[in-house]
Every structure is written in structure tokens, then in C-alpha cells.
Design a protein that fits this description.
About 15% of the residues lie in helices and about 30% in strands. The strands form seven sheets. Strands 17, 20, 21, 22, 23, 26 and 27 form a seven-stranded mixed β-sheet that branches. Strands 1, 4, 5, 6, 7 and 8 form a six-stranded antiparallel β-sheet that branches. The chain is an alpha/beta fold and about 425 residues long. The protein is built from six helices and 27 strands.
């Protein structure tokens, strides 16, 4: 069961960001919390929308503002007048039904500054009776340790303070001031790779008390282009790289997976598999060296890949080329014979180009049926990857035919990415 200190996200870090930016990340940190409008006021067509009949009340669900500044508007539209600017952690109470327009979900709220509408994604629900204490003065560095478990980094001491992000176990944490007692908990002011804030004391692990688990983050890319969407990230211009993570291909990971143990797994520190699906022409960008560091990728190619045979062969020299079916269909919707063709014919095609046996496979769309895994194994593969889940730990959850991956979307912002890849 989740504690009040934890959200549902599982993994956190910022260290790999510069590598990913150099490959395909213009990481947008622009959020919808406080949109401006070019209009000086409501138009005649919106006059009624911007003048709803709202009554103040503190009896509804309680929220706090989760962004540095949030506009309280007279109606559910960016064309409506701004009534007040609410600071982070300001308490607001829901007083009606949410309203969705083309861009945002609006919540009618009652605040000390009056009644109006705010954007739903910029407020967070908090427990009844919880408070947000005063932040202590930042002092000299006290101690550097780790997050002991999945723990919320809050903007202030107390369960009534908004959550900035979630730290995964093992995230580096530096105590930067005196502890504060609020809501029956002791809160520590800390500095982390994801920002500064407060964590509760039991979520802190002193130096030497936390051991990094054996795990690998398998990042799943698709395409690179100026127009971004779920499967396309923007080309980046980062000029720096990080040594916080070590990229490896699936050939190395198979040794780890076959051992099925976290105590003897031959892993580098914080290993990452950078995987690229579907064989778009932009895949040529990934193996290029950045500042002298050549990234070893894993390339899942369908038989229609936009690459010449010599380019596929070259990709395999700088990483590993793997199967992804003939025509990228939902395998769980096909007959046994059709699945066999999709898997085996794709492998035969790749083997003929590479001059060796391909050993890894990724399920198109992450789809598979009861027979699919057996077909993948019978075709001669040694490991298979799912589409999305999270960091793959080398523990009881490990299944060599369903290795977990992390989807990298063009819409992914840096804080969210950081929360997904830390371990």
C-alpha cells in the first residue's frame, strides 16, 4: 500500500539526461500551470462563461497549488480575467464539477483570494488536517546520503505541502539544514538531482546504508524529428555527456539475465540499454560518437526498415541489431502460422544481412499471446523485450522473455524523465 509520502511512479534520476539530450531531447519544461492570454478580457461570446455563479466554501475536496504561481480566473478559459495569482502551497477547495475545454481541465475553487477557476494539473490533493510548515533557513551542508525508499520530495515540511517529484530508493540526497517537526513527522531539508525540498526523516538513508540493486534501465526510442509526438523526439544540441550511467547492449545483458541473481550479476554501475524500435531512417543518428563517446545501442528492426543492408550491418558493429517482426502487427491477433512467419522470416532476413544469428527480439506494440513466447524461443531468439513498464530489476520479477522497458516520448519533460530512470 502506498504511503502518503509516495506516488505511483517507480524510478528517479537526472544523471543520464545530457546523453539523452544529445541524442534526441529538446526537453520541454514548459507546463500548463499558468497560461497567459493575448486577450485583454473576455469576448462577448465568452461573457457568460467568464461570469459563473460560484459561492465560497471550504467544504469541498482540499487541494494545494503545486506550481510556483497559478492564475485564478473568473471562468474556465484563458480568455477569462485573472482574479488573483496564487502562490505554491496555497489551499484551494473544490466547489463544483470540473470543466474540460480544448486545452485544459478547469476546477471551480474557493480560496482566501476569492472564487474562480484553476487548471487541474496545477493543484494536488492533500490529506484532511495536514499542514505545510515554514521552511527552515538553509544552513551548511550536514550530510550526504540517499533516499531510503520511494519518497516524495515536497516543497516544504509537512503533508500539506505540494510534491515536487518522487525520489526512488538510492537517489543521492544531501541534508542542507536543520530538521523541522510538522504533522507528527520529522522533515529534512535536502538537495537532490531533481531539485531542493523536504523529505520525511524515515525516507533518508545515511552514507553507506544503501546498496544499489542490480538493475538495468532499457530506454525505448522510436524516431527523431523536428515535429514531436509520442514516438518522435526532437533533435538535441547538448554538448555534454555524463559518466553516471554506462550503456551496454543486450549481448552483455543476456549474461546478467541468465545468471538470475542480483549478487553475482556482472553489471557496470547504473547500466542502461538504449533501444530504438522500427528502423526509421533517423536511427542512423544513434551510434554517432558524441565528444568521443560512442553509444552502444540495441536496434529492433522490422523487415521494412528504412535502412540499406550495409547500414544494418554497420549498426550491428556499434551495438546489436535485433528482430521486430516482418510487418509490425499485433502478434496476439494472429494465428500460430502467421505469428511464426512474422517472427521467423524477420530473423532469417536479419541473419542473412549480418552473417550471424540475431538473438534478441521486441514484441511489436508490446503485444503477445499464449503461443508468442514459444514461437520467439523456437525461432532461435534468446531474449525478448516488452514495450513499456519500467526499470528491470534482476530479482524475482525477471523474465528473460518479457524484459521491461521505458518508453521515451517526445512529450516527456525532464523532471518526469528523471523520475522514470533512477534506480
Amino acid at each position: 500500500m502506498s504511503s502518503p509520502h509516495s506516488y505511483s511512479l517507480r524510478f528517479r534520476s537526472l544523471i543520464l539526461a545530457s546523453i539523452l539530450l544529445s541524442l534526441g531531447g529538446t526537453w520541454s519544461e514548459v507546463r500548463a500551470e499558468n497560461p497567459s492570454s493575448g486577450s485583454s478580457g473576455p469576448t462577448s461570446t465568452k461573457a457568460s462563461i467568464c461570469a459563473p455563479n460560484l459561492a465560497p466554501s471550504s467544504g469541498g475536496e482540499r487541494y494545494v497549488v503545486s506550481v510556483p504561481e497559478l492564475n485564478l480566473r473568473s471562468g474556465p478559459s484563458t480568455d477569462c480575467d485573472i482574479l488573483a495569482e496564487l502562490d505554491r502551497n496555497t489551499a484551494v477547495y473544490s466547489i463544483g464539477e470540473e470543466i474540460e475545454d480544448d486545452e485544459y481541465v478547469w476546477v471551480p475553487v474557493s480560496t482566501d483570494a476569492g472564487v474562480g477557476f484553476v487548471i487541474r494539473e496545477s493543484i494536488q490533493s492533500v490529506l484532511d488536517g495536514s499542514t505545510c510548515g515554514e521552511s527552515a533557513a538553509v544552513g551548511d551542508r550536514v550530510e550526504s546520503g540517499f533516499a531510503a525508499d520511494v519518497v516524495n520530495l515536497r516543497s516544504g515540511p509537512g503533508l500539506g505541502c505540494s510534491v515536487i517529484t518522487e525520489l526512488n530508493a538510492g537517489t543521492p540526497v544531501t541534508i542542507v539544514g536543520l530538521a523541522v517537526e510538522v504533522d507528527g513527522e520529522t522533515w529534512l531539508p535536502v538537495s537532490t538531482p531533481s531539485g531542493d525540498g523536504y523529505i520525511y526523516q524515515d525516507g533518508y538513508a545515511p552514507p553507506g546504508s544503501w546498496v544499489q540493486p542490480a538493475a538495468v534501465a532499457v530506454l525505448m526510442y522510436h524516431d527523431i524529428g523536428d515535429y514531436i509526438d509520442r514516438y518522435r523526439v526532437a533533435p538535441g544540441n547538448s554538448k555534454s555527456n555524463s559518466s553516471g550511467y554506462a550503456t551496454m547492449d543486450t549481448a552483455r545483458s543476456r549474461l546478467v539475465i541468465s545468471s538470475r541473481t542480483s549478487t553475482t550479476a556482472p553489471l557496470p554501475a547504473r547500466p542502461v540499454i538504449l533501444s530504438v524500435d522500427d528502423g526509421w531512417g533517423s536511427v542512423r543518428v544513434f551510434p554517432r560518437p558524441a565528444r568521443g563517446v560512442r553509444i552502444r545501442g540495441t536496434y529492433f528492426l522490422p523487415s521494412y526498415a528504412q535502412l540499406a543492408p550495409e547500414e544494418i550491418w554497420e549498426l550491428n558493429q556499434y551495438g546489436e541489431v535485433c528482430g521486430h517482426s516482418v510487418s509490425h502487427q499485433f502478434l496476439d491477433q494472429l494465428s500460430w502460422d502467421a505469428q511464426w512467419y512474422e517472427v521467423a522470416a524477420n530473423k532469417e532476413w536479419l541473419d542473412s544481412i549480418l552473417g550471424t544469428s540475431t538473438t534478441c527480439f521486441a514484441y511489436p506494440f508490446g503485444s503477445y499471446g499464449a503461443a508468442t513466447t514459444d514461437i520467439v524461443a523456437s525461432a532461435g531468439y534468446q531474449i525478448a523485450f516488452d514495450a513499456t513498464y519500467g526499470v528491470q530489476y534482476f530479482d524475482g520479477s525477471l523474465n528473460r522473455w518479457h524484459v521491461e522497458r521505458i518508453e521515451i516520448s517526445g512529450f516527456l519533460d525532464l523532471p518526469t524523465f528523471a523520475s522514470m530512470v533512477s534506480y
